[in-house]
Every structure is written in structure tokens, then in C-alpha cells.
Design brief:
The chain is built from 10 helices and 9 strands. The protein is an alpha/beta fold and 246 residues long. The chain binds adenine (ADE).
Length: 246
């Protein structure tokens, strides 16, 4: 069973998200053990102080190093712990990083707050630092949940249908193709005929083509990086011709 420990000043943040849907089921079925730890319990002065004013002056508070160092020393397991700080200065989170992290059997996720960590936490612990995007949140709690959600769904067996993970957006760096379910017609909009044809080869080709079309329109940057084969290039030629003919 994979083990995920979260170190935070706001343990309550995690109650709802971890007790719903797939994350709840993954825990119940023994795929993941998730434990939330209160950073404040590692502060030993009378007022359990975890932050302090920055040397050099300026606005905001900085997380003190000692509670984090003690907590990490306590929660670290022999060898296998992969330590992650959630911070806007980290490497940008991507599906490829989720795939990398699911290989670790123990993640220790440390959530920042305020102006962030005392720099010596980085120097002493050499953590993996991850950002979930180029915007600043009030703390690392939501990023930790985003990361856990993306990682846990990749644990083999967690998703009922293995296929649904394999064909996702970003697995091969294309966006997903359009999906339809019943009814066949909604406010005059019909499901594309090919999906009703029962012809699996035509359906596969249509889906690949629409994934390429959507990626070209919405995320040309992803299309640049994608590994395209002969069929993909043929489909893109067809798409170009269709766009030209309106
Ligand atoms: N803490 C605050 N903002 C963050 C972000 N975008 N990613 C990770 N941790 C953060």
C-alpha cells in the first residue's frame, strides 16, 4: 500500500476532499493510506509558534525551520520517502510528474503558508519542489490535494476501468476527443453518426482526428511536442482541408 503524509497548518482543509469519491475509495480499498499531520504539533514553545518575521524586514511572515525539520525527521521512512514542498517556485506540475510520483511508495507533502519556507529548509532537506501553476494561492493545501488526486488515480486498480486513465488528455500529450452519451439528440444537436455506426475502426480514427483537431485549435503548443505518426499527419491534412472549405 502506498503511503501519503501531509504536513499542514490547516488539517481541516483535507477532511472533505479525502472523504469523497475516488480518493475515499482508494483508501477504503487499501491502495493508499493518507495521514494529515498538524505542523503546529511540532512547535514546542508555549504558544506553538510556527512562523516569524523575515530577517531584513518586509511584509509577511516566514515559516520557521525547526518545526518542519523535526516533523520531516519524524515522518520520514527509511530510504523510500520522497519529500515534496508545495510552492509557487517549484517545477511546474504535469501529467508526466504525476506518473513519476506514483512510482514512489511514500510521499511526504509539506504545505507552505504565508511568505513561504525559511531557505534553510531547502538547503538541509533538498526536497522536490512542485508548483501547480503560475498563480499564487494562500497556501500549499489545495496544491497538495491536486497532486494527490492526480497521483492516486494512477495507482493500478484505483480506477475501475483502466482504459479511462489510458485514453485521458495528456497521456500522449493530445487533448481528449469529444464524448457523447444518451439521448441521441439534445435541443436539435445530434450525436455524430460515426459513433452510432458500430464500426470500431472508423470510430477510432474519428476520435484520433477530433483529438488532433481540438489540440490544434486550443493547445497548438502541445501539438508541437506530440509524437505524431503517419496516420496523424494524414488526419491533420484532412483537418486543414476541412477548415479551408469552411
Ligand atoms: N503555494 C501557493 N501557491 C502555490 C502554487 N501555485 N503551487 C504550489 N504551491 C503553492
Amino acid at each position: 500500500m502506498r503511503q501519503y503524509d501531509i504536513l499542514t497548518l490547516f488539517p481541516g482543509f483535507f477532511q472533505g476532499p479525502l472523504s469523497e469519491s475516488i480518493l475515499k475509495r482508494a483508501q477504503q480499498r487499501g491502495f493508499a493510506q493518507i495521514t494529515v499531520h498538524d505542523l503546529r504539533s511540532y512547535a514546542h514553545d508555549r504558544h506553538a509558534i510556527v512562523d516569524d518575521r523575515p530577517y531584513g524586514g518586509g511584509a509577511g511572515m516566514v515559516l520557521k525551520p525547526e518545526p518542519i525539520l523535526e516533523a520531516v525527521a519524524n515522518l520520514r521512512l527509511e530510504q523510500e520517502t520522497h519529500l515534496v514542498l508545495l510552492t509557487p517556485q517549484g517545477r511546474p506540475f504535469k501529467q508526466a510528474i504525476a506518473q513519476e510520483l506514483v512510482e514512489h511508495h511514500h510521499l511526504l507533502l509539506v504545505c507552505g503558508r504565508y511568505e513561504g519556507f525559511d531557505e534553510r529548509v531547502r538547503a538541509l532537506l533538498a526536497p522536490d519542489e512542485i508548483s501547480i501553476g503560475d498563480y499564487v494561492l494562500t497556501g500549499g493545501e489545495l496544491p497538495a490535494l491536486v497532486l494527490l488526486d492526480a497521483v492516486i488515480r494512477l495507482i493500478p486498480g484505483v480506477l475501475g476501468d483502466e482504459e479511462s486513465a489510458r485514453y485521458d488528455s495528456f497521456v500522449d500529450t493530445l487533448l481528449d476527443f469529444p464524448h457523447y452519451t444518451r439521448p441521441q439528440s439534445v435541443k436539435g444537436l445530434a450525436v455524430p453518426d460515426v459513433l452510432l455506426s458500430g464500426d470500431h475502426e472508423r470510430i477510432r480514427r474519428w476520435r484520433r482526428k477530433e483529438a488532433l483537431r481540438r489540440t490544434q485549435v486550443r493547445r497548438p503548443d502541445l501539438l508541437q511536442q506530440a509524437e505524431l505518426d503517419e496516420e496523424d499527419r494524414q488526419l491533420l491534412t484532412e483537418i486543414d482541408a476541412e477548415e479551408e472549405n469552411g
